[in-house]
Every structure is written in C-alpha cells, then in structure tokens.
Amino acid sequence: MALDQQVAAALSAFPSPHTGPMRIDESAGGQRLECELSAIDTLGVAFERLVLTSDRLRSADLPALRSVAEELSKRLTYLLEPIQPVETDSEQCIVQMRSVPPTKDNDRSSYYELLVRKGGQLSLVRYAADYGSSRQVALAHVTREVFLRLVRDFSAVA
Hints:
- By secondary structure, this protein is an alpha+beta fold.
- It has 3 helices and 10 strands.
C-alpha cells in the first residue's frame, strides 16, 4: 500500500471529532512519515510537525537537497502562504524554506518553516510570534485533503 493510502487509513482509524495527542507513524517504499496530530474531525486535522524521512535522500548532497526544496516550493502552492527557500547551511547540509511573505494579523506573524536536511529528512512546522517576542510552534490547521496532498507531495519529491 502506498504511503498516502496508509496515512489515509490511519486518519480514518481515529475517532472523529477528537482532540488530544494522536500519532501517525507509517512506512512504505523506503519512506517514513511521522506526525503528531492535536485534533481531528470530519473535515480537517491540526498538527504541530509533519516529518518525512526518505532512504533515497539519506546520502544526498547539498545541490540535491536544493533541488528537492525547489520542487517543493513549486508543489506547495495550496498552503496559506507560498513557501520558498530562504537559507542554505552548507556546513550542516540543510535548506531552510519559509512562507514568503508570512501572514501578519494585528501584532502577530505566522509562517510555515520547512527544512530539507541531510540524512533524508523533510519537516514542516508552523510558527507564530507576537511582534517583539520569540516564535512558538503553532498548530497547522488543514483539511484532510490538504494533509494527504502534503504527504503525497513530500513522498513524490523525496
């Protein structure tokens, strides 16, 4: 069974609606998806972090990781803000991507951060911060359809 199908089955196995920690940990085809869900209902999910680890990218060099990041920025057009590469750390072999521009509401800014790391890991987190304060992990609220599309897109590029 494909990774997105396994994740869809895992989502369906949770009671809906439900709040509280729920974990998805599924593997297929040399890829592993891990996600901590905070809430689920018939329409959507809320999560703090989505992580896909890929055996194919385990030994990827920085140019290969940049290519993955560029492909992700082309695919992830359905999130709240467009995501683009913003920084590359050649020592740790990480490409950092963020929402450009972030969402700004009153005195608060929120954005997605996606890291493409050496070792084959892609991670997506939503952050929020009041102006003048440090950032905090914020729940990402997406429909089930968007969640599964994220899984498919991460899997396709990794």
